[in-house]
């Protein structure tokens, strides 16, 4: 069976809420994947940073297989022998008192919002059900009704109202506006340190530190969504470490599952997390023993293989080489660590055709916000593999194309 068969099958029976690059992946190992015809590709997306460790990391796979033979699920109605170990490992690794284990990133964000609101009403004395949280333009924190309620992307909200109130929106990267928006009902700030889905937007230097200072001054919670930027991706274990701007609430996911299982978590200190009482919140699968085993292994591999350091060194090299490419099509190249975006000028169409051309040359990446091709390979990538990719990226960014608007050849 060829790729067309599988794509047609999904087209017929699946909801049409994605538009994938037309490649049908069958197998993966480290930074490489193979399609059903046997063609090999370099994965430059890492499942939106869920594959920081690469595909099927042997240590993580062994832990997963061993745990599958013992125990997979108990629910939180009972204790299990691994959850406490995972919570201790993650809390000590990240520097917090408490961990709330969940499954997906969106679940973790929703959980953080609930914690922040309850903290504000029971610890800060804000009038019950009247608090507001400041978010920023271009944000992406998931797809639930509450989360899309404060999205600034029209498509994410189209047809899904009525929306959840209680949010104010500031421009991304401007701490002064956030300060001006704070009132006596503001309970927190929720921000991605770097916006991934928003177009790999890196804020100006000092922005995170300013948010930390503002939050401390006004005694509100600083919440960083590091689902994509965390766990080594930007060249530090957590992006907030670049400016020593430790948040009150840290939200993690994606790579916490080692690329093999969904694992997410909310982290905070006792004074914040203690607002949760039995019955306030829960998850049937959150904190299951399989997830706990995988989460511990994922952290261990990050530390043992110094994947944050690899991301820093190789990311600086990759970013520098991309910026050296002289291309009429490129408006900007930006990023931090191995989270990099190449923005295509609008007069040359969107980034989608560039991503499709790269796929034909053996590189898998994906457009975001129409104009940006995102390059975020597994952190285990080697320099020579980046060089292999750069040869093909150079070809695509410098060869003549046809402008989709008027079919005139662009040289």
From TrEMBL:
SUPFAM superfamilies: PLP-dependent transferases. GO terms for biological process: L-proline biosynthetic process. InterPro entries: Aminotrans_3 (IPR005814), Aminotrans_3_PPA_site (IPR049704), Class-III_PLP-dep_AT (IPR050103), Orn_aminotrans (IPR010164), PyrdxlP-dep_Trfase (IPR015424), PyrdxlP-dep_Trfase_major (IPR015421), PyrdxlP-dep_Trfase_small (IPR015422). GO terms for molecular function: identical protein binding; ornithine aminotransferase activity; pyridoxal phosphate binding. Its EC number is 2.6.1.13. It comes from the Bacteria. It is an enzyme of class 2 (transferase). It holds the Pfam family Aminotran_3. Pathway: Amino-acid biosynthesis; L-proline biosynthesis; L-glutamate 5-semialdehyde from L-ornithine: step 1/1. Its cofactor is pyridoxal 5'-phosphate. Keywords: Aminotransferase, Pyridoxal phosphate, Transferase. NCBIfam families: Orn_aminotrans. Belongs to the class-III pyridoxal-phosphate-dependent aminotransferase family. This is ornithine aminotransferase.
